[in-house]
Amino acid sequence: MQTEKLCKEIKEKIENVTNLKSLNDLKIEYTGKKGIITELQNGIKDATDKKEYGIMLNTIRKTFNELFEEKLNKLNEEELNKKLESEKIDVTLPSKKIRVGSKHPMTRTLEELEDLFVSMGFDVYDGPEIESDENCFQKLNLPLGHPARDAQDTFYLENEYEKYLLRSQTSTGQVRVMEANKEKGPIRVVCPGKVYRRDDDATHSHQFMQMEGLVIDENISMADLKGTLETFCKKLLGEKTDVRFRPSFFPFTEPSVEVDATCFKCGGKGCSLCKGTGWIEVLGAGMVHPNVLKMSGYDPEKYQGFAFGTGLDRFTMFKYGITDIRTLYGNDMRFLNQFTRGDEDR
Questions:
Q1: Do residue 68 and residue 186 come from a single domain?
Q2: Both 76 and 133 in a single domain?
Q3: Based on the structure, what is the number of domains in the chain?
Q4: Do both 46 and 191 map to the same domain?
C-alpha cells in the first residue's frame, strides 16, 4: 500500500509541474541527499525482509524516473516551441543593406605589382622593418658620416651611430637576399614593404611604402634594366606610356638614373599634375655598384646587376589621381568608399 500511495503522490506532483525549475525542485525533494527516495534507500539496512523492501524501492525509483523524464521532455519541447515562435523571421520583409568592405588602393597597387614581377620570374621578399645601420647604409656603400645619408634621414634609437634603426629603404631586403644566397648565384627579387623617414607634408609621409627590385646575373647590362622598367611602367600606367632615363646619383648604383614616365593624365601634353612638363618621375634605378656586390660576397668581375626602387604611395597617387598622400593613411570611409569594386574582389 505504501508503494502505491507514494507512486500516486509522485504522479500527481509531476503532472502539476509547469516549468523546469519546479521540476528540478521536485527531483531534489525525492532524490536529493535528504530526499524521500534517498531516505528509503538508506533504510534498507534496517528492513526485516530486504528482498521485498528492495522490490518496493525499485518500483518507486523506476516510477519517479520514468515520469520525470517524460515531463522533462515535454517541458523542453514546449520551451523550444515558444522560442521558435518568438524568434520567427518574416522573410517577406525588405532586406537591410549590408556594407561590404573593399581593398585599399595601396593594397590594389601592391598586388598588381607583385603579380607583374612574379610573372616576369621575380621572387617576393619581405624583410624586417627594424634594421641594422650596416644593412641599411654601410653595405649599400653609405659608410658612417657619408653626406648622402641626409637624404634618407631616418629614426635612430639615439643618434646616427646607433646599431639599429627603422629602415629608410627596402634595399635592406636586397642585402639580406644577397647574403643568404650562399652559392652566390643569380638573383631576381622584389622587396616591398614599409619604410620610415623624417618627412611629413602633402606629398611625403614619415612612413610610406616602397618596392625595390634586384637582378644579379652574368652579362647584365643597362639594356636589361631599360627593358624591365619599360614593361613595368606600361603594364601599370598603360601601353601608351613612354619612359625616359635621366642621369642621377645613388651611392649603391653606378651608373644611376632617374626614370620618368609620360603623364597618364594628359598623355605627355602637359597639365597641372605633371606641372606642364608632360613627364612624371616614377622611380630611381641603376647598375649595382661593385662595392655593394663585394660586401655581400659577389665577384663583380663575374656578376653584374641592376636595382630599382619606387614608392608604392606615389604610384597609387598617380594611378588614382590622389593629391594628398596623407589621405591614404587617414582611414576616412568617404575616401575609401570611392575604391569599392565588389565585383572585382569576389
A1: no
A2: no
A3: 2
A4: no
pLDDT for residue 164 is more than 90: no
Average pLDDT estimate for 37-45: 79
**What are the tens digits of pLDDT across the range 176-207?**
999 999 888 999 999 999 888 776 555 556 77
User: pTM of the entire structure?
Assistant: 0.65
* Residue 92 belongs to some domain of the structure: no
pLDDT tops 60 at residue 161: no
Higher pLDDT, 157 or 129: 129
Q: Are residues 194 and 313 in the same domain?
A: yes
Task: Say which amino acid occupies 4.
Answer: E
CA 24 – CA 109 distance, rounded (Å): 64
Amino acid at 272: S
60/2 Cα distance (integer angstroms)? 10
The candidate with the shortest Cα–Cα distance to 141, out of 251, 254, 247, 288, is 251
Contacts of 35 (CB under 8 A, 6+ apart): 28, 29
Give the domain extent around 76: 2-86
Which ranges of the chain would DSSP assign to H, the alpha helix? 2-16, 20-31, 36-42, 50-86, 105-119, 133-136, 171-180, 222-237, 290-295, 312-320, 333-336, 342-345
